[in-house]
Amino acid sequence: MPAPTTNGLNPTVAAVTDRIRERSRDVRAAYLDRARRAGEAGPVRASLTCGNLAHAIAACGPADKAALTSEATGNIGIVTAYNDMLSAHQPFEDFPKLIRDAARAAGGTAQVAGGVPAMCDGVTQGQPGMELSLFSRDVIALSAGVALSHNCFDAAIFLGVCDKIVPGLVIAAASFGHIPAVFVPAGPMTSGLPNDEKSAVRQRYAKGEISRDELLKAEMASYHGPGTCTFYGTANTNQMLMEFMGLHLPGASFVNPGTPLREALTRAATRRALQITAAGNEYTPCAEVLDERAFVNGMVGLHATGGSTNLTLHLIAMARAAGVLIDWDDMAALSEATPLMARVYPNGIADVNHFHAAGGLQFMIGELLGAGLLHEDVRTVAGDGLSRYTQEPKLGPDGELVWENGPSESLTTDILRPVSAPFQKSGGLKRLDGPLGEAVIKVSAVKPERHVVEAPCAVFHDQEAVKAAWKAGELDRDVIVVVRFQGPKANGMPELHSLTPALGVLQDKGFKVALVTDGRMSGASGKVPAAIHVSPEAADGGPIARLRDGDVIRLDAAAGRLEVLVEASAFAAREPVAPDLSANEHGIGRELFAAFRAHVGPAGTGAAVVV
């Protein structure tokens, strides 16, 4: 077990927190001052003119109108990412009515302030629309900002689950940090075809062994109903973060949709949102929840669970919105101190329902608190102290919601282990640096013998060219596949998850295989070593643009190095390749995002436009 300090906090966690606090001192102070001044303005509806307020409540019923003209009534702004083509978001269709009813019962009101877009990376994977995916996070933040700009709300409830949606909503919540923000999930779908079986079917299809009809049948058996996809990708990593960072009610993340417990949690979240407004006795503005300790807790949770690499971008952007400056070095240091406690697909064969049943986040938070790896003394929407999140929600004999102490031991150590006997002593993510720049790699699902790969590279400028070369047998060898000009400036930094089956087949043939890219990989990827988010990106003149076919690359996850074994002066003297990227500028909405590509920041600062 990692040794805690005399005050109970692990020395690495303490040191990283201190350096983040010092690094952020000025920007955090300015942020908190803005939030404080906004909060001191008092109930926001009081500042509206009669005409403003009349417009805001014109569509309300008589009882709500009477309540909303009283400054004593708390009013919740609902920001929803509902659409019915995302399984994870389809359950949100009925949440606004449920929230309005619960608010009225608690003496308050609630209005849908606005909607935000929610795209599904599962639909756009390998398609042109994926080039809009990362930028959708910033669009979501902007859309939520527009919704809350009506300035009629004493608290906000955010309805969102998936990949870019939660990070975008957190950025918006931080921007409106003077009001409380409660995040309400919809929960995972029930378990379907096991994820390892689905993966095997995909590889058989990639090899031409089965038909498309058989592939589709397997995919539909896996993704089969309302709720979040059950593998531990970005969506479910988001849900973990919301608990570790104190923005969910305890135990809310992985309760299935359409159940009495899910409904009870949503009603409880509504009541709690009203209790923590400035009108109550437990005022909990979002700005005070989202401090450096909360983000350290989130990073520890990311490592302990073997979560999605996408969060190495999103956490940085979310933190910056709250005046907290974190970076990949912080994540790397915390990864070394944090044990990997969970094996959930793609890091194992279990899904999130199995993880939750084994003890889930409540067991994990209790273990990490006991080892001094989490800050307990934080503000949360449930009240002060992270210990509250070791409790799990249940329905009492009369159907009322109660919280009980969570499990003190894992029910299945194949899925979830204690800090004292983890799957590995360090976390699932590592930072790489070297002559090719800096990158991140997820090693929690990569076998230890594949943590170091040295091989000649094959360089491509799009994933379709990789697939063509693979089908032609040109990659049947030890190879490091380089896919460049996939960064945020080049084409919006799409995920390259559609390459996973082909690279997995090569690896299964016994070849040494790895991927190096300035693009992203899906949170569902894992077994093939992948150095991703390479920065500076090729379109920004990064060293990756100087690579040539046949250059030997060494990817060393153990040492944290990404090297090209070419004489340094000769490599530096090469002219960077500058391909024609005009094909990425138009079609499927891409022309609308030209300003985003022109102004986006680098991966190391969150690949952000709006923060």
Number of strands: 14
Overall structural domain count:
2
Beginning-to-end CA distance, first to last residue: 38 Å
Bulk shape: globular
Given as residue ranges, the uncertain stretches (5+ residues, pLDDT < 50) are 1-6
Mean pLDDT: 92
Helix count equals 23
GO molecular function, one term: phosphogluconate dehydratase activity
Cofactor: [4Fe-4S] cluster
Pathway: Carbohydrate metabolism; Entner-Doudoroff pathway
Family: Belongs to the IlvD/Edd family.
Describe this structure in words.
The two termini are 38 Å apart. The longest helix is centred in the first third of the chain and has 16 residues, at 25-40. Helix content is 37%, strand content 13%. An 8-stranded mixed beta sheet has the order 7-8-12-11-10-9-13-14. The chain has 23 helices and 14 strands. The protein is globular and about 75 Å long. It has 2 domains: 11-190 and 225-405, no CATH class; 430-605, IlvD/EDD C-terminal domain-like (Glucose Oxidase, domain 1). Mean pLDDT is 92; it is low at 1-6. With 611 residues, the chain is an alpha/beta fold.
Ordered list of secondary-structure elements with their pairings:
Blueprint (H helix, E strand, L loop, with lengths): L10 H13 L1 H16 L9 H8 L4 H7 L6 E6 L14 H11 L3 E7 L5 H4 L8 H16 L6 E5 L5 H11 L5 E4 L10 H12 L5 H11 L11 H11 L15 H16 L10 H4 L2 H14 L5 H11 L6 H10 L14 H7 L1 H11 L20 E5 L5 E5 L23 E6 L2 E6 L9 E9 L2 H9 L7 E5 L4 H4 L8 H9 L4 E5 L12 E6 L16 E5 L4 E4 L3 H6 L20 H6 L12
